[in-house]
Design a protein that fits this description.
Residues 1-100 form the FAD-binding FR-type domain. This protein is of the alpha/beta class. It folds into 2 domains: 2-91, Beta Barrel (Elongation Factor Tu (Ef-tu), domain 3); 105-222, Nucleotide-binding domain of ferredoxin-NADP reductase (FNR) module (Rossmann fold). Helix content is 18%, strand content 33%. The protein is built from 4 helices and 12 strands; from the N terminus they run E-E-E-E-E-E-H-E-E-H-E-E-H-E-H-E. It has helices spanning 74-81, 115-124, 169-178, 195-208; strands at 2-9, 13-19, 35-40, 46-51, 53-57, 62-68, 89-91, 105-110, 130-137, 151-158, 187-194, 216-222. The protein starts with a strand and ends in a 14-residue tail after the last strand.
Length: 236
């Protein structure tokens, strides 16, 4: 597929839109689907990385993917240097874990790696349903705006804020989560972040709130210190 458009999203993310014959039968039914993208590493070997389809236009057959830009790995290097006309190979997605759209409320929590899935889920929820997002980003310039018919409330935690100096990502998100009061009714909580952080957030909800276990989905989208490791479904 071919890069057709590029849009910066704050200081640490880049949105690329792709087109091509490879997308003629593309289907993505869930906001946290994962596709495989293929890159060439420093040694010339082909490596695969997982990404979330941020948006797929079924009429124009264009696929939008948001890339977090940080100093590591062939995917980041490719995305940071990408130009309109550059090509990229794709695989998937395989199967979709579709969350029912009949809960009374939704809470979506994550770091930058989760923003594409968070944004897509907010935008695809039914009209009027309350959805709260809690996201960790570098600073105010990295916040995003989601257009939705749902009743969206966004909470942003700024890693680089002076008052957060010395705190790690897990501590920042846990503090913010502890400050939230879960709404009444039957709700669904979705978490995606670095594996250790996602596990800590899930543990807090299980041990310190009355949120039912079966209505919490937590995933490790990446694992600190490992180039290509994730745990898409955290249990136990």
């Amino acid at each position: 597929m071919t890069c057709a458009a590029i849009e910066p999203l704050g200081h640490h993310m880049r949105r690329l839109t792709f087109t091509g014959d490879e997308l003629h039968d593309f289907v993505s039914a869930s906001p946290d689907d994962h596709i495989k993208l293929f890159f060439t590493d420093a040694s010339g070997e082909t490596v695969m990385r997982d990404f979330t389809p941020r948006r797929f236009d079924t009429v124009a057959r264009t696929l939008t993917i948001d890339f977090a830009i940080h100093p590591a790995g062939p995917a980041t290097q490719w995305a940071a240097a990408a130009k309109v006309g550059d090509r990229l190979d794709i695989g998937g997605p395989r199967g979709s874990a579709v969350v029912p759209d009949d809960f009374d409320w939704y809470l979506l929590i994550g770091d930058e790696s989760a923003l594409p899935a968070i944004g897509r889920r907010v935008e695809e929820l039914r009209a009027g349903v309350p959805v709260t997002t809690l996201a960790l980003v570098g600073g105010v310039e990295d916040e995003q705006v989601f257009t939705s018919k749902a009743k969206w409330t966004g909470h942003w935690v700024h890693r680089e804020a002076p008052e957060n100096e010395g705190k790690d990502d897990a501590e920042l998100l846990l503090e913010a989560l502890e400050g939230l009061t879960l709404p009444q009714g039957e709700g669904f909580v979705w978490i995606a972040a670095e594996t250790g952080i996602a596990r800590s957030l899930r543990g807090y909800l299980l041990n310190e709130t009355t949120q039912p276990r079966e209505w919490i989905k937590a995933a490790g989208y990446w694992t600190r210190g490992l180039a290509d490791a994730s745990d898409k479904t955290l249990e136990g």
